Amino acid sequence: MAKILFFLCIFFSCNALFAQIRIVDSLSGEPVPLVNIYAEDGTLLGVANAKGEFDIDSLGQDANVKIILQHISYNNYQESTLELRKQKLIKLIPRSIKIDEVAIGDKSQYDFLILKGYFRNTTFFNKRTRYFYDGIIEYYIPLKNKNGKVYHRILDYRIFEDSITTQNFREVMGNFWQWKPHVMRMKTQSVANDLPSKFVLVQDKGRKIIRTGNLNTGYIQETARGDVQVYFDIIPPNSQKEVSFFKIKGQQYTGVTMENYSPTNLDQPEQAKLVSRVVMNVGAIKRGRKSEFIPFDFLSEFYTQERRFITKEEFKNIKKEITSGLWLELKSRYTNKFWLDNTKFGIPPMNPFIEKKFGKELLELK
Question: Whole-model pTM?
Fold first, then answer.
């Protein structure tokens, strides 16, 4: 009997190992966390963990289904589930970054940094895409006040909606809480320098680890390409955050912020060096005691295209044109096809599975 149990343990252990796939950087071999995994119908199947791992069995059994792996710092990787099952290691190729550096002799004479760039957001409800929206935005970041307010100006944007998913959301959540499209809230400094009180930075050889208690929840490190990467998950491993608001209850399983910088100081990454920023929240919500929790996720991305600096006097001249409000009007507003410029700046293409839904399930709001 003992021998049978031993062989069963070996069998299941081997299968568990086989089912696990690791995603790494093709240059450094380091794990790539927060890789989004999509099915060809645009469904978000899951997200790789902090070690760059995901369970292939969680993707379903259909061998002919196409899967796409997407990450802000790497080229998209597309393969069928049949081929993925043959692999234990996937190497993602870093994307090229094309931003013109601004040569500034004395930054002390300026009061605000302007980051102009492309934003892209996707909201999912019950694993279906509810909103997809993107556009061009300018962030106005104070340089001399770390607690100062960050303003922004949206130059162009478009919004696509799946009306069936929105109706399903209303049926489940009611009309009290709508969760409409909004832009990313930018900070005056890196997330690594603005951690909640229970999190600390700990030196670990050539990088810094973000830790709470004995748990590692992120890091700051220099990559093989020479740039700096920040990863932080506000939800510690093997835990979740629960919130309640009247009859609405929520569970958050992942709350990741990832930032990429061109070469900068590991101790204090400069916002002027920010290349891209992504915020990913994975969770579930329900209304009432008897209802079940339904997956509710959203992904928010920002890619810098231009950088410049202005004085306090110049800022005053445009103060009436900018805002700190985050919510968008449910109406597209653009003068040119801004999304066609993404290749020029080295911005990863949008998810092709979601793009196929444009004009079908996802209709542009005009």
Answer: 0.86
